[in-house]
Fold each of these.
Amino acid sequence: MSKVLVAYFSTKGVTAKKAEVIAKAAGADLYEIKPEVPYTDEDLDYRNKESRSTVEMKDKASRPAIADKNADIAAYDTIFLGFPIWWYTAPTIINTFLESYDFSGKTIILFATSDGTKFGKAVQDLKPSVSDSAVIKEGKILTNMQPLVIARWVNELGFSEE
């Protein structure tokens, strides 16, 4: 049986709650991707062209620092990777996370939360941040999914807590 990690970035707790459901359903470990400098509500104001998140997302080379780089990625075969959708893709802090570890030979299954958008270019934007031998799969937008439905999806992927 493969060892599974659920890694996630969450600013308002929505993605964190979905990550917890996946971890429980898959019998997986949980790891929160924390920014070195936490985001404030002002940082997340997408209507403000000078807010931190807007500036980061406009610059595809932006790599916000993460608080720690101590996840034991080598111990896992599969990583569920969750984040809120920002500007039709993953926040650039997800690239920071992926570039901080060796994901060679790993399968990465994305999940996200969103106020109405889809994954957009998330897979395309994240692929350059991992080795060619890592597989990134688009998963699901989980915003409005109930825990039982999320658990069923995890089970359909071949993971269960048993």
Amino acid sequence: MRLKKMLVPEAMYNDIYEISADEIVARNKKGVIFDIDNTVAPYEIATPTDEMKAYFSSLVGAGLRIAFVSNNKHDRARIFTAELGFFFVSDASKPSPKGILRCIDHLECTKEEALLVGDQIFTDCLAAHRAGIECFLVKPIKDKPTAFFRLKRRLEKPFINIYKARKAKKMEKEKEKESKNEKD
């Protein structure tokens, strides 16, 4: 897979709550791996909120298996996932795919049946694609106000624009197809 393709997500959303269980199941996914920080919760939220718990419960209710993968320290991931009871990998060193592959093994699904949800192209998206699975990208909940993070977000923009252009092209093709079907 070419590097440019590895840095473009399969789908983008404002937040995790826009990603429905129905959509995930419709894509033939059985396991969903979530990044924690800035994807599911801001850094300063130590434990899941009721809204987060309800969301994950809805996914499990649809038959999906859940795991978490984080570059953060073990204690952060352990404390966050304790109430949820889901498997997690901490200190994952993303964009290395190793943590994601451990999650896939634990979820007992194939790579084709797995999906990663994250907020960063150069860690989450790249790690997911290196592991051979799809990636859904959400907007970061709260960016760190450092020069490094501002630079990283600026470097992500071309890949986000590629995704948007692909999505627009796909929608245009679907409109053309619908128009053609109406004429027939």
Amino acid sequence: MIYAIQNQIQEQLDSISSSLRAFSLKLTGNSVDAEDLYQDTALRIITNADKYKQGTNFKAWAVTIMRNIFINNYRKKVRRNMIIDQTPNNYYINSGDKLVENDGEANVAYNELMKMVNTLDEDFRRPFLMAYQGFKYDEIAEQLGSPLGTIKSRIFFARKKLQKMYQDAQKERRA
């Protein structure tokens, strides 16, 4: 009985062989991989002949098997090409393509901003610098002996004034 089913499957496979080969070439893009895919598919069809339901579309079943094999092979290929770094902090992955950035421009901008900060009135500069250093508003208010609202507004106005000074400096450079 099993031999008869396999024989029947083999005949049906032979009848759609050219279609399957064309489909495998379409999927893979080259004849060597297409032939491998066809062979894998034929083997899977023959070994799983007992799973084919008589009276259903054999070609659709075979094409589905081929497509699934192609997808699984593609996923394996992608995983095979993926590097898995087991070192702490992904040392090897993070060490390969490091870009060394030039901080010169950032340092110039920082130095320029600090010069602008130093031109602010003491009442604005001191709370602004403390906020920049990470102090909370209430800590600044306590240390400077000023109301919290006053500190918040001084830091706000210091930021606004610095933004205006920076924008003006940018315009001067472009001109």
Amino acid sequence: MNKVAIYPGTFDPITYGHIDVIKKGLKLFDKIIVAVSDVENKNYLFNAVERIQIVKKAIFSDLKLSKKKVTVISFNTLTTDVCKKYKSNIILRGLRAVSDFEYEFQLAGMNRKLNNNIETLFLMSDVENQIISSRFVKEIVKLKGDIKKFTTKSTIKSLKEKYE
């Protein structure tokens, strides 16, 4: 039986923190579904199609992760509905700092109320990547700073093109 985990997020853009969570998740699960949120109430830098392409380039081209082990999808439903569709009872979430915990704790509780068969598993990125956030990466690149330590080459290229 294949064990599948759903890793939902905006990935606007994907960072090494996200990638750490994916890599650690692959040690625990047979397959990770990276679910790129397309909920309309957010103000994204990249649209859903762009974010999916950026994530795919980062994961498959830059990092050479297996397409058999990682799938990238878009969704605009409840995460619990994505779990049902892909026959998963695991939601994978990353934690960077204590400040993330309260929101993530509430989110996990709500998902559990929506479907009590679903568990949320929290993974921490490596220490050097815990401070990275998509918001900071966007701000640094907008101000023409160096983001090589925060995300992949193809993601940097996409960000620079967006801000030119």
